[in-house]
Specification:
The protein is an all-alpha fold. It has one domain (4-119): 23S rRNA-intervening sequence (de novo design (two linked rop proteins)), CATH 1.20.1440. It is 78% helix and 0% strand. The protein has 4 helices and no strands. The protein has helices spanning 8-24, 35-54, 58-85, 91-119. Helix 1 (8-24) packs antiparallel against helix 4 and helix 3 (58-85) runs antiparallel to helix 4 (91-119). The two termini are 19 Å apart.
């Protein structure tokens, strides 16, 4: 078991979520239970799964939760494209969010590869 708040990948995911909340606050009101909610929940899922995995027994379980976090990162990326294509965010914000989620995704992947190497 480890303190998730000390992991750089969790901190980056947390900052991403906070920034995403700020950006989605300008989405149309009719999206509050649609894309806004879905984007926020998927973003929260990334950092939450990292945190939950850190509270489990051993690297194998942590790795499983990192896989789930990775799936949520892909979901967020897809939804950012939808938000851009619907005109809810401009190209600049879309690129910023995409770059940041790609960074988090790479960090999750790297962390997971290290865990899997330790388990072999």
């Amino acid at each position: 078991m480890q303190d998730f708040t000390k992991l750089e990948v969790w901190r980056k995911a947390h900052i991403f979520t906070i920034n995403l909340y700020k950006i989605t606050s300008s989405f149309p009101e009719e999206e509050i239970y649609g894309l806004t909610n879905q984007l926020r929940r998927a973003s929260i899922s990334i950092e939450s799964n990292i945190a939950e995995g850190c509270g489990r027994n051993g690297n194998k379980e942590l790795s499983r939760f990192l896989d789930i976090a990775q799936g949520s990162a892909n979901e967020v990326k897809c939804q950012v494209f939808i938000a851009r294509d619907l005109g809810y965010i401009n190209d600049e914000k879309s690129q910023l969010l995409t770059d940041k989620i790609n960074e988090v995704s790479k960090m999750i992947n790297s962390f997971n590869q290290k865990l899997r190497t330790k388990n072999q």
